[in-house]
Write a structure and sequence with these properties.
Chains A, B: Keywords: Transferase. Chains A, B: Belongs to the ROK (NagC/XylR) family. Chains A, B: InterPro entries: ATPase_NBD (IPR043129), ROK (IPR000600). Two copies of one chain form a homodimer. Chain A folds into two domains: 131 residues, ATPase, nucleotide binding domain (Nucleotidyltransferase, domain 5, 2-Layer Sandwich); 158 residues, ATPase, nucleotide binding domain (Nucleotidyltransferase, domain 5), CATH 3.30.420.40. Helix content of chain A is 40%, strand content 21%. Chain A has a five-stranded mixed beta sheet with strand order 3-2-1-4-8. A five-stranded mixed beta sheet of chain A has the order 11-10-9-12-13, with helices on both faces. At the A-B interface, strand 10 and helix 8 of A face strand 10 and helix 8 of B.
Chain lengths: 309, 309
């Protein structure tokens, strides 16, 4: 039994919020657009979170939250409680943990969205299905962009917020990236890149990677080429990890993972071709879906309460 | 004050051995060829180590060793005490720690040669000069081959012995590798590859990468091309790490590091060109030289004695 917690998962596009009950159920799950373009983005975020929290508490007046779990996107220094940098939301070195703690008058567990959602995936999702022996793992989230949570000997790798930025690691066939580097995995392996590159190559506008997959399955050779290039690029990046931290499992989440075996099967094959004596990781789909971040915020809130009794 | 230890650093080519005194000095440092081609390579190794240990003890009869520090090359499972695999020496899943402990009737601290030498470099060498704030670091050893020791949050990453195999991570311009994979960093960025590729391209036989560097410094364009391709490849692999575990420092050791700033300066420049918002690591030379392994074995012996009082 845990006390109720207020949970927030702040992304560049939207904020998910919920209140957890004593059994750990997520109540009142809601998704609203993240307020953007304000002069003080950190203060504006805290104000928006306060409003969302008040709504949740009004809906469930008998549940009195004892801590807050707050995840944010960008470069995050979990130890210092800082939002170091968010290209989308605009803050720099914002003391978000302290600001949230003051606004709610509660202890706040603070973390990076992808890293903490990955920790929840490892504990409650695909990782739980793999068993406790998997202590070296990667949760690779492939959507509009690509990010990852890395786990070494059972611990999340943070490196001051700079770890797991796999979307901005170079692959041999990558292109110039808006981040300023060249060849980033995101420019070829993300769901966003698949859709964009297919539209450019075929002249046919598509909404997302799903349509490219459907085109491939009807025999469209352009779609097949774009899809395969994405798979090759993702496999290249995973192979790099097999030579550095050597994960036992790679858990694939995000929008592109909805392709299921159409993604995972060629990914395993491509990876196997790239490895020799290396340890080949299991490649499995994520299980928690959209709520992985709120589940991660729950873990953070529980930690914060232990630290601040 | 520590008691004396017997120290062994077993590589594919040779074994270094020494006895440490109470002040931690290494006495009787000796390098002999590793015995090879025997039907039982693990038993043969232990027999050879026993002979070397007896010699050391005969030289310093007043120093009675209280533990053994044993490092071996290949894939090593430090927790289980196993030499999992050595392509050069031929064992598979050999219980080397237990075998050495029986042979010497002493507790044995057991580790991987590169990983443990890296730990010593971090503690006593370049890492000590960088200060205690560096908790995420890579010690990259570039010689005939390339291997690395990775440190995350101050802890060595082992991953069952499969971590740090950077020599066998692909780079865009790499070639087929004897390991069975394609594009391995070792095929272009190692001292061995630099010498071999220069000989192939120029028709002039050289003994090592040092001669290629000397040729470059006299204006040889072939030498400059081969050297620069090696630097680019090494920088590519380091940039991958900047997107995954984001080290604060990369310590370069091994034979190629003797080139000093002729290697490190272009390496820093090439790396900087590949990064955007990533955290740029310090790139510094290793300091311990040939004895890093024995210093690491010393750390392992001291650990073993704490575990088995």
């Amino acid at each position: 039994m845990n006390p109720p917690y207020l949970l927030f998962d702040v992304g560049g596009t939207d904020i998910k919020s919920a209140l957890s009950d004593e059994a750990g159920n997520l109540l009142g799950i809601r998704r609203v657009p993240t307020r953007r373009g304000t002069p003080d983005p950190a203060a504006s975020l805290i104000d928006q979170l306060h409003g969302l929290g008040s709504d949740l508490m009004a809906q469930s007046p008998l549940l009195v939250p004892q801590a807050v779990g707050l995840l944010v996107c960008g470069i995050v220094d979990e130890d210092a409680g800082l939002g170091v940098f968010s290209a989308n939301l605009g803050w720099r070195d914002a003391p978000l943990r302290e600001m949230a703690s003051k606004a709610f008058a509660l202890p706040v567990g603070f973390g990076h969205d992808v890293s903490t959602a990955g920790a929840a995936e490892l504990r409650f999702g695909a990782g739980a299905a793999l068993g406790t022996k998997v202590r070296n793992a990667v949760v690779l989230v492939i959507g509009t962009g690509i990010a990852a949570a890395l786990f070494v000997d059972g611990h999340a790798v943070s490196a001051g917020g700079y770890a797991g930025e796999l979307g901005h690691a170079a692959v041999p066939v990558g292109f110039d990236c808006p981040c300023g580097a060249h060849g980033c995995l995101e420019t070829i392996g993300s769901a966003g890149a698949i859709a964009k590159r297919y539209t450019q190559a075929s002249g046919r506008s598509v909404d997302g990677a799903r349509e490219v997959l459907e085109a491939m399955e009807t025999g469209d050779p352009v779609a097949a080429r774009i899809w395969n290039e994405a798979v090759e690029a993702i496999a290249f990046s995973i192979a790099q990890l097999c030579s550095s931290i050597a994960p036992e499992a790679v858990i694939i989440g995000g929008g592109l993972a909805q392709a299921g075996e159409a993604l995972l099967e060629p990914l395993r094959r491509s990876l196997r071709n790239k490895l020799s004596y290396h340890r080949e990781p299991l490649i499995v789909p994520a299980r928690l879906g959209q709520d992985a971040g709120l589940r991660g915020a729950y873990l953070k809130a529980a930690e914060a309460r232990e630290v601040h009794p």
